[in-house]
Queue: 3 jobs
Job 1
Amino acid sequence: MLKSDTGRLCAGPQARGTTTKGATDLLLDIRQLRVGRVSAAGLGAGTGERVLLAGPSGSGKSLFFRALADLIPWEGEVRLDGTSVHEQPAHQWRRRVMLVEADSAWWADQVRDHFPPDSDPPLEALGLSTALLDAAPGRISSGQRQRLAVLRALARAPAVLMLDEPTANLDETSTARLESLLRDWTARGGLLLMTSHEPAQQRRLATRFWQVGDDGQVREEGP
Amino acid sequence: MSEIQPITLVDLLLAALVMVALAAFCRPWSRKSASGLLTSMGRMALQLTLLGLVLQAIFDNVALHWVALVSVVMMLAAGHEITARQRWRGPRLREFRTGLISMVSGSFLLTLLALLVIIQHDPWYHPRYAIPFLGMMLGNTMTAIALSINRIQEGAHQQQARIEARLALGEPWHRAIHEIRRDGIHQGTLPVINMMAAAGIVSLPGMMTGQLVAGADPATAVSYQILIMILIAAGATLGILLATRMTVRQLFDDRERLRLDQYRKIE
């Protein structure tokens, strides 16, 4: 069911496990997933990888991410480090397989209140001022919010981070900074799944391509 | 008590006529309000007339099973009323159960406490005490619970993106809905707080008014009123705490997903 290039799944900067083929080599293992008209027969990705999920608007990329985060009803099996999503409380799964949606919402009065109390987010790395932490989320630009939403998720130390269009509102410099931060994070062992409509960005960032086809099937594509 | 002034059918019709006239003035702005006022007035008159007949029969024949039967009917009706007042409709049976459980806990248990421990009339279930106490408790608790549930369901729909953003970051469901439940509790307790704050200054509460009209001395009327207000506040608070807990849990499935797809808006 899984793609035959399992060995390549471990080729990330901090690949773990043995070189033997099998689910234990995978960080994220998706089997027979079905949500709405989107399905995935067998997909996998390991630590250190950056998976770019492509597909036309409305093809179900966000739906696929929401299913992986177990935020909506879906069918099938997803395993993280060999442990099934069904074997753990949903919030524990989401702490490890974390989703940042395209226009992620904010709920507290100040940006700071959305971060864990003892966290020290690398704002400068994304060209953001520390003063933003005291700002009201509604009073900052959408580009700033978008970058802060990524930091807000990283501060919670997920194993897998899913970003839906994270650079949609960003200029070139900010995009480059965010890409660099994500590269560093995956180099330290994180697994990134991300959607992007920009072919150039996909080529720059991706170590693996997943494509939502016309039939709704998510398949692995060549680079 | 014997000096109470009787009210004739003509008196009632005169009062109803005033209401009909006002509903007619209301009609150009809101036909729904005008018809709502008139139909609910008719319904109220019918319900109270029936209750009067039932109470007369029970007063003539004091027995625990008759009091229990009337109480059960009142509680079922109140449970139905709570679900009927919601702007969002979820699975009917589940909503009815939530309304009923929270209301029975809030009203029935505290009415029992009042009858058995505080009033201690012989027999304790005498309908002269049991039915009015339960009725007042149910009426107020029902409003409080309905307000709380409404607020929570409305809040969850308005703040769906916020709740889901928190869930997506790994927060447990009860954390993600915490502020909305707090708002729901606040909304439900507000009328009770206002009722107690205004009692005796702005408004003369119903039970006290009734007792004074019936010829009771003010001191007795006041102590009964204080008792019923404390019971109402306690009953409403208990009902709200239970109803909000059940309502927020029902917004999520067993995988802590916000399931607003099971609700539809009632226009």
Job 2
Amino acid sequence: MLGKQTGRYQALSLAMVMAFAIYLLPAFATDAVAKEAYAGQAFAEEAFAKEVQAEEAAGEGEGEAEIEWGQDVFYKDWEGNPLKGPVSGFPAPELGPEDYNTYEFAPSRMILWMANQQHLYFGSFVLAVPIFCMLIEFVGIRTKESDPIMSAKYDRLAHDLMKVSLTAYSWTAILGGILLFTFITLFPGFFKYMAGIFRPVMHVYALMFLAESGVLYVYYYGWDKMNNDPFLKWIHCSLSVLLNLIGTVLMYLANSWATFMQAPGGIDEQGRFLGNIWHVIHSTLWNPVGVHRILGNIVFGGGIVGAYAAYHYLTAKTEEERAHYDWVCYVAMFICIFGLIPLPFAGYWLMKEVYAFRQQMGITLMGGIMAWLFIIQAVMIGLLFFGANSYLHNGMSRVRGAHRYMKYAKYMILLLIVCFTMWMTPHTIVMTPAELKAMGGAQHPIVGHFGVMSAKNTAVNLMITTTVLCFLLYQKANKKITVPWQTIGNCWLTAIFIGAAANIIFLGVYGYFLPANVRVGLSVPQVTTTLTTLFVGTAINISMFKDSESYGEIQWGTQSKVGTYAIFLLAISFTWLMGLMGYIRSAVRLFWHVTEVVRDNSVDAYTLTIGEAGKMLTFNTLFVWTQFVVVFWVASLTAKKGAQTEPEAVPVPAQQQQ
Amino acid sequence: MNKTFISFIVFVGVLLGFHNVVFPIMDIKEFSWVMNRYVYYLLIPITLIFINIILRLKPPVSLIALMVWVLGFYFYKYVLYPPIPWTLFITYMVMWSIGTFLYVSQDAHTFREFRKPIVKTIIGEYKLARIVVFALLPVLVGWMTYNNIYPAYQEPVELRTVHPAPPATTKVHGKTWTLETARNPYRVDEQDNYKNSFPFLDADKNEYMKNVTQGGSLFFENCHYCHGDQLNGNGMFSHVFNPTPANFIDPGTIAMLRESFIFWRVSKGGPGLPNESTPWSSAMPPWEEHLTTEEIWKIILFEYWYTGWHPRTFDTEESYVGQWEKEGKPAGVH
């Protein structure tokens, strides 16, 4: 897929499966854990409570103060009653004007929003890049024997990306410092409460940051030294796994603060800590937010690296440069699309959990005051899929032999547009009274059916399946399949995609006849169907490449300009979308700092109009991209200083594999 | 004659012919699987493809793009019925335009072909085209400007929040209900498996159908004037309201909501809505002033029974059926 020999397929497939398994582990774990956790936590809590009771009993004899018990706002025991825990903290403060500080030039909330968003953008980038490097370095090691030139190319790319990441890492830390100071100076009352609850987590977070820095520096500065010895190279690659694990833990710890604010647990109604820090961290949204962010980081990182490479591709002076950056674009987009495909599913899971936590919150998001922002979100997601498909079409068209499949492009585009039209149709349509009368009611008798989740789930699954199909055709574009079972293989592929489409549509239509709580469950088989096309389809496709002949090599450096601009569209759209979804998730708390526990009594406790929110999001997007340009420029200074000799050959794509 | 020009003439001719001759014939009022406007629409591209193949016209990419775009416009503007609001029309056309662009930019060759006449027009190779385009462009801009600034007397559109977030609790007849946990005390079967029974006729069969019957009677005494005797929002008074009364048959109204939400909305009516929902835009009275708590719950029971929808529940919720009998009070009330 990314290289020349068959071995690379195996290497990449293995790497992808590993990555997928690692990053979705919490997701798989959660459902199992969610049920068990319930029991497990309750059990642990009971044991803990007994312990405390014993201490209490012992304490009574010594005349010590009696322990007060509080009821958890979220966790429940075996019988569904609120879980009890020993009160171990102070009640949430009722914040007054003295708890908020302001500057004259801008509202505190806007300053905090900006500081937070910039830190998150950079955090996301520096968490994504090591994932890339881990995969690319792994593929490089696996291809070293079969294709040393290609292997060197992979290694250089991973090393270059780490160099950028190193600069971005310090930048992230600085932005984190700014964010912390903004909290302390502008929202001291709120921060005091959060620090009181999360005290140990914050210290662990700082220590993990130290560990991350240590591993990062050893990983980067030890690159050349560990490059020649095969054993040391594996150790080096293992360091990248460690780096990613620490990074993931860091992110999950930081997520716990945000998820606690949105859906608190481990405290009583007065906001008093009930002695179990795991309950506070592991509140109901912790896992879905974590998985969603990991996938989002991969797409975001892919977008940035892709845009960086696309810029260099468009401004390249030499053929070698063009070829190199065209290939980097391809690698970045490959990883980006890989993250993009499961991202909507993680989003659905998150929304399901939000709804289950508070109906009120779910309605505010999907049907209430935030609903129009969700429509904008739908537009942005559509743009991402259009960008990805446009890149794939343009990339495929320059492959010799692709003419066999290019004729299907227009049908895939038509399907995408029809699905996107369904996906975009709002349930509540903005209209004048005259239009309402002309339509005969608030819902249109035909397109009105597209306004509910059954239609939208169907649309998004079909869009993803179409993207998967496009990707499979891209893979086999220049292959002349020679395996004896090619007809059977092609029949299976056709059957899988037609069957998947039929199943997705059937489940979507069937959903209209089911109760809402059962209907929600239909999204699971729909998603499973889509993922089946991805994994089984890719597996069959790759198996058919054995002993295949090539129609000709890809001429790297010949990607069309439209396809290259699609990468910019994807990167910018995703940055804006990340900001938008972050804002929605955070703003749904409305006038609460911590939902139903700490009320936001500042002058900024209002919901922005759609226009104002849009301006802030656009500003944040422009601002972060300006910083990215600076960071890449800084990183390029060292590259110019110690310019390395280019490997003579350019990478050879999957389509040429024999 | 230039084949491109012939292809263009064919396109215009087919579209005009179909619109003026075939459309009135096929658009009959009675439902038919064959004679309807959507089958009619499908015939247009089929006819165009057929003629182009027969005459071996091979229209260039730019003309195909134009045809595709115009056919999309024609569908959303004239074929889709009832007509869709302007905001939705714009949204759909943006989608269709993006799709058309994706089609012409699918590969470098197609995009070059698409650009060719545009570039030639701009640089002056197509002199007549350039004169026409550059003469029409200012006229088009002027016409759009005129349309924009010409005073319109239509009511402005508004972004109304139809399903606002409910409050955490609501006080009805002196009792405070927690909406997160409040349940319909008359619900016997959560999934409402009583479809074979019929209220009024089967009211004696069991307690549940008796409650549904009472709810139905109350509905027709109080609600059907606006919400309609088929609960589809088309009651006799519905046409004077903006927004129109809720259509309970629609899968996006009560089917998506918990019964406690409906209870809050019915009890408090328009005046009880939060500001985000512009309470002045709802004509529904606060029914707590006219009905008892029990009557409101029974009406809700009937609405779900009649429409066949099931109230929204979540997996994590426990069964609450019969809790009233067990505890002496309905769930969620204190």
Job 3
Amino acid sequence: MKTTQFKRAIPLKSLIKRKKGADVDTFSESKDESGAQQKSSIEAHVEKMNNTMGGTSDLIEREIIINTKPLIKGVAFFINGLVDNEQVSDFMLKSLLNDSFDLEEAKEFSNTTLEHLIEKQLLTVSEVKMETDWDKIIHHLLSGNTILFVDGINQAFIGSTEGGEWRSVEEPKAEVAIRGAKDAFIESVFTNMALIRRRIKSPKMQFEMFQLGNSSQTDVAIIYMNGITNAKLVQEVRRRINKIDVEHLLNSATIEEFIQDKTLTIFPTVYNTERPDTAANSLTEGKIVIIVDGSPFVLIVPVTFSQFFKSAEDYYQRYDISTLIRILRYISFTIAVLGPSLYIALITFHQDLIPTRLVISLAAQREGIPFPAFIEALIMETTFEILREAGVRMPRAIGQAVSIVGALVIGQAAVQAGIVSAAMVIVVAGTAIASFTTPAYNLAIAGRILRFAMMILAATMGLYGITIGLIALVAHLASLRSFGAPYLAPFAPFIPENHKDGLFRLPKKIFNK
Amino acid sequence: MENIKITPFQLFVLIVLFQLGSAIVVAPGVEAKQDAWMSIMLGLIGGLFVFIIYYHLYKQFPELSLIEYLPKILGKHLGWFVGFLYSLYFLYIATRVLRDFGDLLVTAIFPQTPLFIINLLMTLSIAYVIYLGIEVLARTGEFYFLLLMFIGVIVNTLFFISGEVETDNLLPILGEGWTPVIKGAVPTLLTFPFGEIIVFTMVFPYLHNQKYTLKVGLIGLVFSGVLIAFATMMNIAVLGIDIVERSSYPLLSAISKIRVGDFLERLDALAVISLIVGMFFKIAIFFFAGVYGATTLFKVNQYQKLIMPMSIIVLVSSISIAENFSEHIEIGLKIVPNYLHLPFQFYIPTALLMITLIKKKFTIKSHS
């Protein structure tokens, strides 16, 4: 959009002269000096604003007469609901309308221009910007700021009045910690930035803002610590974010998809969290936090595989307990991935590896089951996945019904009807519980997919298939990188000092060395 | 050369996995009866010497692989030809190990599965990992090294707990003098597994920190040699030399004797898993050397392009290489050590080293 080409520009001088004669000559002179060849009128601005916005009904146009000597016409624009109404009325409008102000006096006090007077003296709102770029003016308007045009001034005054309704800061829902902080990120990027800033009061912490999405113009902030975060990493994040070209950016997941290293993987290479303490902790470790307006989940890069097994809770409980729980999570993830496939492999191929008494009892149970172990497992696992998905998407009121159907029909009744064996129900249930211990939801999903792949391998090649599958899996993980950081570190490559907070969580005294 | 680097620890891990790969399940050096472990140690000492030869060769041309520096020593055409032979040799050994592995799985756990299917799965995973690169192979190695060491500690502890270890089986030491011990070591043990480290001359240029190469290589060899000797000792102690001699895979037989309480038994699965992992790395490293050599020889710009055809060749020839298992073993014991291992592992490298040293002497003389 071209800026400041107003067709019906009427000089300020002529307007004011009609009212007060020579008084304002100084202003008009300085106006000429400030370089605007085309003198503007308020009507031109209003028309242009209405053209751009297309007469949308949430755009409020407020005509005012500024209470100065002489009186000047002005018009304020803001978007209903995006602005803090009190701020607009108290600090933008009230000050302009009520406070009487003598331009003559001000001229005597300091040799200054009209726009400076309005900016410095009249507007009592906390932050005022002057802007001529029409695109930016519209962006500010749509971000919840109030735009003020004053007759005879070719610039727009932008008062920061962002406000309106946001969800308040609430307890984290997805990442619960018993002893951790009880605040979680919300949808507003600025509130989220403040939540982090409150935890790290260091001038080293830097925020950088981007506007992404051609039409959504979403605010995106990257946060890093000067001197702690690798400068090359910051450069790389900046480069990848600048490369993003989308029309609408509504969630941090979109950014995640654009900036991740490798698309062809089921493993997440970007961490997301709703906990400000986790984000702050990552910053102190030299990572970069990315906040996207409209998403209560912030992104953290780079990330390693072990990060997904850490929970904020680990740092709030004793180190020995945390270490044990962490190891428990790794074991659970292994069970979640391998549980059914090991059972299938043993039942189908390696009955001789099962202790004799157990194999007899298993054989008795499987008597009369019409399916091979693989089909049996597939039925149960698929049913479980359906139940889980139903439970997640359902309104809470109906949720109860799902669990009743799940427990009774799928569990007990299926065994009694002779469709599946009781041992299989135990295996599937155990696997399901184990899969819930993974703190990161996106890694748990990867585990679910892997579980099915492993089941197929186990059904075709038994333990050999599982072992080969695991080798390929580890190789795949080893080949992944998250912003240059090897994904399997500190295990492969083996980095001894990082083991302080990898599989183990050592005492903080050792930690900080 | 791509910007791919291997850390000293990763080299160590690769060497250990490579050495243990197949040697730990078969019983090397049983010609020396209960003194097999001494044969292994002797073989290890020989292995250390040949490793030093390879290292000195490599030191003349750091950042170059064996096949890359061959033309510089032997001249363009002869060097290319010898490099070609080496590339074939690596691929052939990869094929043989793959066959060994497939036959073992068929005998031990999958009597009804066709050999082809078992080898296919292995080849696919190797092709995938090599496609991802040597660095990924090294990292995967680090992960599985820790796992294998863990399994090893558990299995050995269980050996003792279950009370199957009879140290008397290891006596008498040197009952028949040194002759059988030396016979067991030379040439079989020298060439397999220790001499096979020649394949690492293709990996050296990827090292991150060149000054550790010798140290890490020697430590890796000693570590794996001691482990193999120890495993053989345990096998003999558990099973007795008669059974070890007759069994194709004594480690499997030994582990299946573990019985703790009434529930901890039939741990063969652990042995099979370690075996699959070890074999995987052994074949993968040979395969990588062969593919990478061919890439250099035929000036292919990306070695990934050769993985598909090469893996098909290796897979098919692993089936057609021998009619049956006995024939395969026969070739492996009679022909391969004398006509392949010895020339490629000793004669050629020694000759190469001598040529370079003489050349060097002459150039120094002509300079002064």
